[in-house]
Amino acid sequence: MRVIGLMSGTSYDAVDAAAADLSTEDGTLYLTPLGMVGEPYPDDVRAALAAALPPAATTMADVCRLDTLIGQAFARTAVRADRELCDGRADLVASHGQTVYHWAQDGRVHGTLQLGEPAWIAEAAGCPVVSGFRPRDVAAGGQGAPLVSLVDLMLLRGRPGVPAALNIGGIANLTVVPSGGDPVAFDTGPGNALIDAAVREVTRGRLPFDEDGALAAAGRVHLPLLERLLAEPYYRMPWPKTTGKELFHRDYVRGMAAGPAYAALPPEDLITTLTRLTATTIAAALRPLGATEVFASGGGVRNPTLTAMLRAELGPAALRTSQELGLPAAAKEAYAFAVLGYLTLHGLPGNAPRCTGARGPRVLGSITPGRRALRLPAAPSRAPHSLIVR
């Protein structure tokens, strides 16, 4: 089956599409990558999305407009991916949508909302669409994240030592496979979210992020501010746990850096301190799990200052990228949702209950038919346990 995975993360800068040929044989899922394309959100859509996200207030009219505009943006990217990567022969689109709210409270997730109406994708691309992956896991008592942990487990099983997968998007999350123990997965805290928010603030919107980590490289860590940031209760919560921009947003940075002690803090020092926060909290999450190798993906791997800090914090654990597992760092999550969509269409579970906290395995998402009558394929004789990238 030829599947397109669509993803837009918590940085909400673009829609990424990755296409793959997928097949199952004797308990192994084989993935042949076909490439990736990306489409930035139109400026007006990104501005409307930024204006509606927490801690801002919004209206149902805004939600309706965003659901349509985001769905249309995902549809355009799917059509382009089908044309450029699949020779017009895509069988399925798996759309993560755009997370706009993750209702986490008192250690539980009560609900989650992703926008991007799948009917626009099905209408434009013509093939069925699987969407809405997270709510079923939440309904089963899970955190609804990180859902990519199932794909991580399939990729990492059988590796020596204690392998870990790390994604540094707006929020950072990890999956660790201890030798002989149960897998662990959770959000560690901010990835790029606070760094990006501070960069936009100090440059008055001129820069959307710290390109090549240049601002962080030019500053110094402000230890009193770092200690204040590290006092955030989320870091000491037990896993499984998830978070988002409902907590880690622009006003969070403003509140933490408020007061006379930080009034003269140079902008570069603020960026450096927030970059160190991301590296420190990721390493602090990995250290007690005994990770021996860490395969990183997401936008954070393009920040050399962040990766250098993280490498120093991790000590003997080797920091690598997901490219060494066959999936480019920029496309790994899109490929992961292509896999999850494939599993859903075959009636197979897409969550890892020990990682999300759900009561058991669940088939995820909803299916929107394409132009032809929907005929679900037969499920494999047994669910795939491992993933091999060809």
Q: How many strands appear in the DSSP assignment?
A: 13
Q: Work out the helicity level.
A: 25-40%
Radius of gyration: 20 Å
Q: What is the C-level CATH assignment of the largest domain?
A: Alpha Beta
Protein structure class: alpha/beta
Identify the overall geometry. globular
Number of helices: 13
CATH homologous superfamily classification of the largest domain? ATPase, nucleotide binding domain
- Global mean pLDDT: 94
Element layout with pairings:
Layout: E1 2-8, E2 14-25, E3 28-40, H1 43-52, H2 60-85, E4 92-105, E5 108-115, H3 118-125, E6 129-131, H4 134-139, H5 149-156, E7 163-168, E8 171-176, E9 184-190, H6 193-202, H7 214-218, H8 223-230, H9 250-256, H10 267-286, E10 293-297, H11 304-314, E11 318-321, H12 332-345, H13 353-356, E12 366-368, E13 386-389
Parallel strand pairs: 1-4, 3-13, 4-6, 7-10, 10-11
Antiparallel strand pairs: 1-2, 2-3, 4-5, 6-12, 7-8, 8-9
What does this entry look like structurally?
The protein is α/β, with parallel strands linked by helices. It has 2 domains: about 1-140 and about 330-390, 2-Layer Sandwich (Nucleotidyltransferase, domain 5), CATH 3.30.420; about 150-325, Nucleotidyltransferase, domain 5 (2-Layer Sandwich). It contains 13 helices and 13 strands. The strands form 2 sheets. Strands 1, 2, 3, 4, 5, 6, 12 and 13 form an 8-stranded mixed beta sheet that branches. β2 (about 15-25) and β3 form a beta hairpin. α1 (about 45-50) packs across α2 and α2 packs parallel to α3. The longest helix has 26 residues, at about 60-85. The protein is globular, with a radius of gyration of 20 Å.
